[in-house]
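Render this sequence as a predicted structure.
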Amino acid sequence: MIIVATEHNINLTSAELSGLWSTYMNDSMSNLVINYYLKHTTDEQIKEVLEFSKKLAQQHLEEISSIFKEVKCPFPHGFNKDDVNLSAPQLFSENFHLIYIYYMGQVGVEAYSMAFSFAARNDIRQLFKKYMNQSAELMDKSIEILLSKGLFTRPPYMPIPKQVEFIQKKNFLNGLVGGKRPLNAIEVTHIFGNLKTNEIGKSLITGFSQVAKSPQVRDYFLRGKKIATKHIEIFSLLLQSSDLPASMAADTVVFPSNESPFSDKLMMFHINAMIAIGIGKYGLAMSVSARHDLAFQYGRLIAEIGAYVEDGADIMIENQWLEQPPQVPNYENP
């Protein structure tokens, strides 16, 4: 008897499994972070978008749990109520809560579009397609509020070309030796985007460094703050070198506090996840930047934060905080 595979009995591929596992881990973390933000948000517009984000995270956790149950995959441990202290004092400004949600929506669009493109099963494709559209809606809601409050930082403007031009000289690629041409629109886009990512990361890690319980974790966050500050300066100078304004950081106030709203485990996971996303953004920027000096700069920065995130992974492993993703069996040493 031949059994024909259907949508109900087709096994998950490695790409589908990794997308679901990563989504579950990230949403179990963000659900707790948003719950804490809601405790310290009075602005009705910001509260509304936080509630929407919370609803999405909870929905994702329920839907993915159902799929894991169906395929008999163990649920990730993720994060739970032991990783959040809702009675802790306010650590970030309400405006930062809004900017944070905008950033998470942006990350969601990028992550779910990749998961969607790798999925084969129709139900999984439709799931990630829905998540991608939800993240886009979250971005839309966040941007509209940011614009209404004068908090949305637009990328730099530049003149519209008057005609189509073709590159005539190979020195268009120069940058390490000799004169440098002004940045092109593609390069400006990625420099600005990476600058904004570092500004958000710096605010987050500044707050975390104040409240971390472990001296080792606190020192790790302080080191990360210095790295983010340096990268912000590098990207700002690159924009200024082409007579473009550097980004002005929005209101991302961090309040003084030493009572942590989150476990060290959650904060380490959050920062290392953001850095992993940053490495991907740097890699993409390097691949589309024609000037040799930009590619060299991105390569150097990737190496620096790659070493930093490895040290973070070591801390997490030492404390048994790093949950292992689904792994291919070791067939040589079963």
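Summary. The chain has two domains: 14-148, 180-318. The domain at 180-318 is CATH 1.20.1260.10 (Ferritin).
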